[in-house]
Amino acid sequence: EIHENPVTGYLERNVFPVLLQGLEALLGEGQKYGWFEREKPACVPYVFLIKWLYNHNSQQQGRDPVNFHDIPFVKDFLSTHPEHHIPRFLLLSEEQAAVLIQAFWRGYKIRVRPDVQELHRWQREQREQRDIRRSA
């Protein structure tokens, strides 16, 4: 005769089935957005999992889906423990990052040209002369 631990039984009956569904949803979302193809994923997995578990709570059926920052216990926690800023490069897709890098490079190549540098010097001198006249 095996005596079942009530805590283990509760976890196996109530927690693990829902948690496994949430983890499957997390993996599906990660594959959908390519989170696993990068060295540093562009997501925070616990944010997705908390939001999914809160919105799929079987005891709260019929409730409208809620954003992560609108979940009551998350609001309470973040009021005392501010969230760290997620770097912008983690939020960009590869295409968006490529466009930004290319735009920077094109701008740099133009700015280093001697004729453009001469124009910038001339514009700077003109601005300085106008400021001197205004202040005198």
TrEMBL record:
InterPro entries: IQ_motif_EF-hand-BS, IQCK. It holds the Pfam family IQ. This is IQ motif containing K. CDD domains: IQCD. It comes from Nothobranchius kuhntae (Beira killifish). PANTHER family: IQ DOMAIN-CONTAINING PROTEIN K (PTHR34927:SF1).
